[in-house]
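[User] Could I get a sequence and structure tokens?

[Assistant]
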Amino acid sequence: MSEQPIRRDDLVRYLQAKALRPACECCGNQNYDLFDETQVDPPGMDGSPATKGRLSLLAFLFPGVPDFSRAKTLDVCAISCTNCGHVRLFSRAKVLQWISANP
């Protein structure tokens, strides 16, 4: 289940079902760009190959000096305000869980 890409329309359905406030918390704009995992990113300028999009955050579990051996990642879905660029993140696992229950 975790490897299926999240499509734009599924993310929109999730956001609507959860009755999230449509207005940006920073500027009040109501338009967002949604990150679509089914779109293929072009090859990078450094020669890296094209890849399908997926966003993960690197999280350190303990304060202080970062210890990369204890770091964890959190997969997220992102939406970005088209006016100010404020980014909102949602747990990818929660979104996938909802999509599976609401095909």
